Request: fold
Amino acid sequence: MDAILAEIYESVLNGQMDKTISSVKTAIDIGMDPETILKTGMISAISEVGRLFEDGEYFFNLSLTTPKILMIEEPYSFFRIEKIDIILNVLINYEQYDKAKKIIYDIFDKNNSYNIYPLEKGYPLTLYQHLANIYVKQKDYQKSKEILHKLEKLYETSDEQGMVCPYQSLGILYYHTGELDKSIDYYKKFADAIPNRPSAQIEVAQKCLEYKDFECAERYAKKVLENDKNNYDAVLIINRIKYSN
Reply:
């Protein structure tokens, strides 16, 4: 096995998410084919985890293990959608859009050789959101808009837990199209949908500050400070508002 693939294999096997992401980035930088990274580096490691689990050689305390890398729910190998997220995010960040789209379409192809679990309960929507984000980066805003508004309707009418939330992506989309009122409305909806995630509150506060909506910026920054009075980003936003008035 190639040295970099061996690194990926070992980091997945040991539940080292940061090292996995770093090694995947390195593999892409040197021009390695994404399918090889997935199948030889990552899927083979998950298969080995499954074997060890089935044979009773591997036991996981999920409170001590990175659940996005190692979450064994059945005694056979599978490749969780979270691991697809890792490689798609890397590809998109490195502007390898065609390769990312190929992986997405290959997964949806019933004849593909990927063993993805689970894809039945809303998880395909995660892949569609990746696809929409690729179209934004390629400036094909109409295709992105069509996908994201379909996801929005599904998200708002489904009672299924874990359904992907498209509001942040819609905020990004409308920012790029110059429709700033729509953009900030979706950023607010995203923050309100996940009130316990400080990063979402900070993001909308920063956008409001950028659009000079100081009341909005202050409101969301203070939400963060209610639970973390020393949050650096929130304090910075409040101070910038004071100096802007």
Notes: Residues 1-119 form a domain with the Methyltransferase, Methionine Synthase (B12-binding Domains); Chain A, domain 1 fold (CATH 1.10.1240). The chain has twelve helices and two strands.
